[in-house]
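Objective 1.3, modelling of assemblies. Example input:
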Amino acid sequence: MADLVPLYMLLAFVLIAGIIAVETHDLLSSVLCMGAVGFGLSLAEMVLKAPDLVLAGVVVEVFALVLLIRIVITRQEAPEEFVENTPTVALTGGIILSIFIGMLICFQSTGFTPFGQPLMNMGRAYLEEGVTQGVQNQVTAVLLDYRAYDTLGEVTVIFTAIMGCYALLRRQGEKEIEGNDTNS
Amino acid sequence: MRGMTLIVKTTAGVLLGFIALFGLHVVVTGHIEPGGGFAGGVILAAGLLLMVLAFGADEMRERLGERLAVIWESVGAIGFLVVALLGFIAGAFFSNFLPRATGFELFAGGSIPFADIAIALNVGAGLFGAFLMLAAYRTARGKDQTEGRGE
Amino acid sequence: MEAYLPYILCVGLFAIGLYAIAVKKNLIKIIIGIILIHHSTNLFLVLVGFRLPENGSPLAPVKPAPHEQISKAEFLARSVDPVPQALMLTSIVIGLSITALIVVIAIRLHEKYGTYDLTKIRELRG
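Predicted structure (tokens):
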């Protein structure tokens, strides 16, 4: 329990940053708090002994921050929060109550072990065979040798998402400002 | 999107070399040290993002262009599929067929480093291309944004 | 409930994201809610694979260097689960691509309607 204190501190930091990101009225502040959420989660993954996730998480968080700042800063007007009156109390209470009831049902089921004691049926088999082979990084061995189909699906998803971005950012048949024709 | 001053451009050009070197190191030693194709790919994309932010979208479109980004992304995706289909030599789809060794050598992983390089090309070039299109989109529609609002 | 405390904090983050999607009227707050839900799901699955062994500290699933003498049985008893970490590594990069796609959609919406308010986007006909 004593060596989990950094984990609890980081999770509390991420929770507070998430609440600030959702509730503040200034859009630029909420985007910066999202950067804090991503960075805090990457540090939490360092405590959870996942070094590849730390590398990818920090760089992905910086990239997402640049993307979010781009839609917040426009040239015409200052971004402002549009506050309307919605039944917030009833809706919020309903959401949180339903989530916690779902959690209670989940914790009473048999397959959900307490924190720190995973079942590891598949992980133990992969580790036992993977340690005898030549690959040192077992996470890469699982990702590219034992579970390579999932990586193929992931390559497909990334390719499709990027093609979607290209398709949405084309201008069909419109001229540019200088008068040249766009080839889309 | 305009670029920045000369100091920022020079520093970004120097830093791109180090970022690319680190990204390639993370990709190629993915089976020895923590890292791999995905982490190395996003590091390369972040280095190219630094170039787009420093030089401006127009100049980067002339130098690297989004056609090149699409071509490299497709090469990465098809390369991963070719590595998977070459596993048929050893009898099964996705089989790890190259010789393996135990120990901390660079060629100890079989066909894993080639799959890592293909994934890094796919992820890195794809994210760079998407951000380049996003940054260049604002420039060409700069004057039309005021008459595009429906009020 | 003491042993489930990290899970409860993670589900709390999920609830914050869901509240942002359901209640907020600004498009950027909805995008922030989507990203929060994605982060909480990644964290939950990495938390499931974590192991606290009785003797010693948990080990990352990387085979130790030859100059550190850890036997195979001890490594298997102290290592964390590598399968959720591998799948969440791909999930993080997929989350970035989905964020880029959502941002592109938001930019096109803002260009067409001139505002990020959802009630005005529903009223106007483009």
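Helices of chain C lie at 5-23, 27-48, 72-78, 82-113, 118-123.
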